[in-house]
DNA sequence: CGTCCATCTATACGGATGTATAAATCCGGG
DNA sequence: CCCGGATTTATACATCCGTATAGATGGACG
């Protein structure tokens, strides 16, 4: 394996247990057994390397979620949403540093257009994907993923995912539990129909 | 005004238009017309100063939101939620750097227990406050803010707020619009009742 | 007026970091 | 075998940052 692959691997490992912002070029060298200058040679800069690695990890994470949401082909949209939220919360504990990496990257993206573009693209792809799942669960061939109803539901589900993760990051103890979310949602809608 | 107040003011100003992470001690000195050593003298450290300022700004922001949510005493919970989401999205454009400061602070909080404690406390207070509003709109004297139904709804509303803000930060163009959220929510629940 | 404490000033220190440079090494092809 | 481009190595550089230190200043008070 060349230094390129070694560095990419090390970056992924570090992202998953040290976060993004506090990884130094020398950390990457130590974890990969390569050389300081190889970072610049293969990736242009430290951030170039980190961002390349981050994209991969991010994508895998959303892949895993999509798989869960699709597990039961007969689930209703709400059931899928609930399942997704529950899964997010369930796996959060293992992925704390990774989640932190996303948050740090999000902050960093404000000053790094390339990174921002990359993250936005992943986000958009995720939204589209969720919209597709929603469309499928309509069971109506005329309803496609780009139907406003589907994108709306997708945006909503993902907003809850993001918000959940954020609240959990700050205070796991008091963060909402999935069944409460579902109850809250039902209650919210029920009360407005009186 | 002593250096203490000058620094606090400068910190708030910088937080609102430069974010958190990239403020240097020398920025604070320049913006306040004080002295490098005054930071240490009055606040112990640069982060001490920044965190003190951040707490204030954060609190004002949630105050403003609560006021909006309470504007119409006859609104249903869902109407309040919708109004809150719409308001968040509406004001986001003015508060971009501030929102970024929160995200950066959230990342920083992982390595700064005092900051984390402080942010978690504000979050908790906010959640309680929203729960109180929800309880009020039940119009039932037996339902209090600590009723699970209220805290559940509150957690849910805030999760959506957070998620919305996050998506908007990354990509304002394609972030969900409040009316779509509402439509998505209704659709989600309606479809699950078939 | 003189003392003393709080506050303010100017500067130095120590350290860490990302990147560039130049030399060494490797390896495939002629 | 040997050449040359690709890669790897070792190190130097330049910069920036947070904080500590030591002394100046100012004003309240006896």
UniProtKB/TrEMBL annotation, chains A, B:
Residues 24-43 bind DNA. It comes from the Bacteria. PROSITE patterns: HTH_TETR_2. One of its GO terms (molecular function) is DNA-binding transcription factor activity. Residues 1-61 form the HTH tetR-type domain. Pfam families: TetR_C_6, TetR_N. This is Transcriptional regulator, TetR family. InterPro entries: BetI_C, Homeodomain-like_sf, HTH-type_TetR-like_transc_reg, HTH_TetR, Tet_transcr_reg_TetR-rel_C_sf. PANTHER family: HTH-TYPE TRANSCRIPTIONAL REGULATOR RUTR (PTHR30055), POSSIBLE TRANSCRIPTIONAL REGULATORY PROTEIN (PROBABLY TETR-FAMILY) (PTHR30055:SF209). Keywords: DNA-binding, Repressor, Transcription, Transcription regulation.
């Amino acid at each position: 394996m060349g230094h390129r692959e070694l560095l990419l691997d090390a970056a992924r490992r570090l992202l998953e247990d040290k976060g993004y912002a506090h990884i130094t070029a020398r950390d990457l060298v130590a974890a990969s057994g390569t050389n300081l200058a190889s970072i610049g040679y293969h990736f242009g800069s430290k951030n170039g390397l980190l961002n390349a690695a981050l994209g991969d990890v991010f994508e895998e994470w959303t892949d895993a979620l999509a798989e869960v949401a699709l597990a039961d082909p007969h689930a209703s949209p709400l059931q899928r949403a609930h399942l997704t939220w529950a899964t997010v919360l369930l796996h959060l504990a293992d992925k704390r540093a990774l989640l932190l990496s996303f948050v740090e990257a999000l902050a960093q993206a404000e000053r790094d257009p390339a990174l921002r573009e990359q993250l936005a693209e992943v986000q958009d792809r995720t939204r589209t994907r969720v919209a597709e799942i929603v469309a499928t669960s309509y069971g109506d061939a005329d309803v496609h993923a780009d139907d406003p109803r589907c994108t709306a539901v997708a945006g909503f589900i993902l907003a809850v995912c993001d918000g959940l993760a954020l609240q959990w990051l700050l205070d796991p103890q008091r963060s909402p539990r999935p069944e409460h979310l579902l109850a809250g949602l039902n209650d919210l809608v029920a009360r407005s129909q009186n």
